[in-house]
């Protein structure tokens, strides 16, 4: 009888890539529920479209590359990309937006560079930036929170809007986004930026109906929900605290300093923390292991850089939010960060 | 006394980066006392069981041998002897399966046991402090003792290094899951291990020893605590449970906060380490005069009916050992020599137990699931988080796949201790250690080829130089000979003798005259013909 040959170690911790990815998308559930609560069912339609597209794109790309298709579906990385992109775009955006973005993310950003583990840029964010630059109107048309909306959108209206551009009653998205005063409502960050640029003071800018006690209505709670999911990931050791910690410090410390010197003209750190994609970015996007730095020190620096870039772009840049740009810019610096944060190996003069 | 030394004395335990906590599973094998294994019918003893050259074979086929009789000689290049494990007849000397991951063969001596188990007369030593250090070292060497912890480095060789030593560390950590051989030995033979430690201290000329035991072995710790009061030179250190805290470099870091320099030895930082099994064997060799004939082997895993620890003679075939323990193989059974983290699989069970064999593990596929397909690295960095050597395993993996050997050296490939922590946590199930071993072998091969090529080049250049030199010498000889001849001639002429040149000229003149005569005659003949 001959016996099976195997390489050591023979013991293996049973946490596969698939399980890691599953934790990531399960931890997104609180945030998705919050989004649904404030912005309606559109997010589910977007999720379904994104998942279908990702599944197909992954299959096509693997087939073109002559690799086993089932292998790629198994690792669930495409699911994470699809989910992140679907929850980043406005919930009622037309169907082709998410399809195009997801296909680009999977085929070009991921597979053209060699597939999972090889891509330089975060696929979901590269897809997002492609869409934002190409279709700025659709990509910034966030629905207004349900509690402020004049017209409630049903599930069938949602589907109809996404696929045809009109509700069953014939309203288009622009009409739905109007407030009681007949003015289209912007997202909180967008509105703040415009108002502050127009020499309004912060308190004046915050007096608009889209703001509640914590910040933008809906947005604050969505951020808190993503924060919760993120803390679960840290607890489960799916991510380390270094990137989200760095991100928040890099964003909030400069923001606080800037605000202390310009209390009337700057967004408060609290608003920074609970607006836009801050928490989603800090815990779910910047932490993509493939495109982030690898050592703990490197991760900390990477997080700081992303957070700081978000602050800079939000404060002086041309876009209201900046997580996608900040992440992509920081992705580019990863090889350098990795090079200069290599830990000192045992026996090479480091201290115990 | 420096602050660092004070902290060591005070029993401070440092920490080392990374490490993992795999399921320990030691309870499978550590519940019962070490049992003697019944004699086998046949033993195969590899001549090389340590790191160093094998000794010269002393026996011939057909020889009767007794237990403890040396089969090979103490030789040059760290050559250690091996001994007959029982009495019987040498039936073969030749290539046989050995315990090596390669599955290659090496010279083995086969002994057919006669069942009497007679042994040669052992020479006990009442007071080892009365004989010289050199004699003690010789005793350890002739007993064939090599590090029983796994590396198999000749113990006497390690002790012979005459360098200042702060501490002797006795390693009873046994951090690898499943294995409990050292645990049982410490519980049952603490006094002998202490004796061995004192002998080692005496030989090494060292004052203090630290005995390190992992916190998951309370019985072993209690056994030592009960005895150490009477041995002021020895102190106990309990280290927290973490794999690989029993690795030599990691244990040094834990107990002293020092790091062995890259490519250096523990003695470079004033330390020397021995395994508890080695300390036991040293005591046996010194006090009882018994060479290394047997060792404790853990037989464990869900596919043996009688897991436990056994006194196993060196040379016992693994097949026999497993048979005695009620081995029930399953399809695609893995038989692992060593533990689940660093052990290697055996394809053929005729392989014998050797001096460094601490465990035979036969897991079911439920308890240690076979490796899955390797997936792509997602750079998650889990490997870097657990690496005790502070390397970047995923970086090494890319470089190894790309065969970037300079890059691998830059990333300190050779500081990898192959503990397997990285591969253990890898969510993509990449067999990282396998890649590193292969890359290390390739780097070594390249270095060897380079050295060979260098030697060949030197040889070629030396030959070219020699040929050129010989040519020059030959020309020089010819030139000198010609000069000498000319000089001799000149002298001869000067002395009025015949100038050889004259003779040449005369010969030329003669030849010319003859040619002229012939030409004239021919012309005459032609004329005559015309006239006719």
UniProtKB/TrEMBL annotation, chain A:
Protein name as catalogued: Electron transport complex subunit RsxD
Organism, by scientific name, is: Pseudidiomarina tainanensis
| Source organism phylogeny | Bacteria, Pseudomonadati, Pseudomonadota, Gammaproteobacteria, Alteromonadales
From TrEMBL, chain B:
The record's remark on the cofactor is:
Binds 2 [4Fe-4S] clusters per subunit.
**Source domain of life:** Bacteria
GO terms for MF: 4 iron, 4 sulfur cluster binding; electron transfer activity; metal ion binding
* Start and end residues of each stretch annotated as Disordered: 463-532
For this record, the Gene Ontology CC terms, alphabetical, are: plasma membrane
Where does this protein reside within or beyond the cell? Cell inner membrane
**Gene3D superfamilies attached here?**
2.40.50.100, 3.30.70.20, NADH-ubiquinone oxidoreductase 51kDa subunit (3.40.50.11540)
Q: Could you give a single Gene Ontology term from the biological process aspect?
A: electron transport chain
Q: How does it sit in the membrane?
A: Peripheral membrane protein
Keywords attached to this Swiss-Prot or TrEMBL record, sorted alphabetically, are:
4Fe-4S, Cell inner membrane, Cell membrane, Electron transport, Iron, Iron-sulfur, Membrane, Metal-binding, Repeat, Translocase, Transport
Q: What is its EC number?
A: 7.-.-.-
Q: Which residues bind [4Fe-4S] cluster 2?
A: 387, 416, 419, 422
Q: Which residues form the 4Fe-4S ferredoxin-type domain?
A: 368-397, 407-436
Q: What is its main location?
A: membrane
Q: Which Pfam families match?
A: Complex1_51K, Fer4_7, RnfC_N, SLBB
InterPro entries from the UniProt entry: 4Fe4S_Fe-S-bd, 4Fe4S_Fe_S_CS, Ion_transpt_RnfC/RsxC, Nuo51_FMN-bd, Nuo51_FMN-bd_sf, RnfC_N, Soluble_ligand-bd
* Positions contributing to [4Fe-4S] cluster 1 binding: 377, 380, 383, 426
> What SUPFAM superfamilies does this protein map onto?
alpha-helical ferredoxin (SSF46548), Nqo1 FMN-binding domain-like (SSF142019)
- Bias (Basic and acidic residues): 463-489
| Cofactors | [4Fe-4S] cluster
Q: What does this protein do?
A: Part of a membrane-bound complex that couples electron transfer with translocation of ions across the membrane.
Describe the protein's quaternary organization and the partners it interacts with: The complex is composed of six subunits: RnfA, RnfB, RnfC, RnfD, RnfE and RnfG.
Q: Which NCBIfam families match?
A: PRK05035.1, rnfC
Q: Which family does it belong to?
A: Belongs to the 4Fe4S bacterial-type ferredoxin family. RnfC subfamily.
| Annotated protein name in UniProt | Ion-translocating oxidoreductase complex subunit C
Q: Which organism is it from?
A: Pseudidiomarina maritima
